Amino acid sequence: MQRDPRGRGGPPVVVLNTNTKRETGPKAQMANIQAAKAVSEIVRTCLGPRAMLKMLLDPIGGIVLTNDGNAILREIDVQHPGAKNVIELSRTQDDEAGDGTTSVIILAGEVLAVAQPWLEKRMHATVIISAYYKALQAALAHIDRIAQSVDVASDERMLEIIRSSIGTKFISRWSVPMCRMALDAVRIVTEVAGDRKDVDLKHYVRVERIPGGELSDSRVVRGCILNKDVTHSKMRRRIENPRIVLLDCPLEYKKLENQASMEFSNEDDFKRALQIEEEYIKQMCDGILKFKPDLFLSRLEKKKEKNTRASNG
Kind of pairing, strands 295-302 and 244-247? Predict the structure, then answer.
């Protein structure tokens, strides 16, 4: 969007790409409805007890089989703004509830499809939206009437609820151990502060995928898992009650923040510079070894990304 460079008044000038298609009014409304219906048709066959799996090809060439609506729509590249909003609805549902990602897309598509005949009759969109709000209030009132209280301390009741969430998923055949692991993981990270309970699954729960074995070999670990390979034959495979040292900085010599250059007049000066770097690293290692740690964790900075380096003695 550009304005007159001479500072004169007047409406702004909108600069668009030559391939951009601009629609307004009823035509844009119909296009948005068609885009939402197209997205809902993609995941419609993934809902229900007879749901079918979708075979997806990710950008790196891997094949994924899933009937999870959010996982399917996450791999779809769309350009239509209406379709993007519908896909964002699925992501929001997954972040807030963790379930119902397919249902919310199908429901949104049907709601818009029902509104299409009224739009064709020139009924204003605000009138249709007000009717949907009335329907929402009626639905919430009905939900309050049929709702049942749940005792979160009851394992049997909680497992029934979890089992209903994965009943249509591919993992349903292992529902007994998977439901138990899900319940144990949530209870481990639950924080109680007075009458409030906080469960932060994004920061405190992680699924670590390790090739090999069977799905029944999965376990819930109360702690941290660092999937690292053994780099030395003398590294211990098991450590009871280890002494752990955490270093919140990379184990390397300090680099200058600004660009700097070094000039060497002979080869000995260059060797001395390398020796100083090695002495600095050795000094850091000697300081760490004074604590006699069994496990040492440091932060590795590479291309402005934070990774974790692990080693044990």
Answer: parallel
Burial of 100 (0-12, 13-18, 19+ CB in 10 A): middle
| Whether the predicted pLDDT of 59 surpasses 80 | no
For 129-166, what is each residue's pLDDT tens digit?
A: 999 999 999 999 999 999 988 888 888 888 888 888 77
- Inter-helix orientation angle 155-165/175-189, to 10°: 110
Supply 163's token pair.
């089992």
pLDDT band for position 312 (cuts 50, 70, 90): very low
185: number of Cβ within 10 Å: 19
Sign of CA dihedral 277, 278, 283, 288: positive
Burial class (CB in 10 A: 0-12, 13-18, 19+), 165: middle
Length of the chain: 313
Select from 228, 215, 117 the least CA-distant residue to 166. Answer: 215
Alpha helices, DSSP H, located in 149-260: 155-165, 175-189, 201-204
Residue 10 CA to residue 140 CA, distance in Å, equals 48
Q: How far apart are CA 42 and CA 35, in angstroms?
A: 11
The DSSP 8-state label assigned to residue 13 in this structure reads B
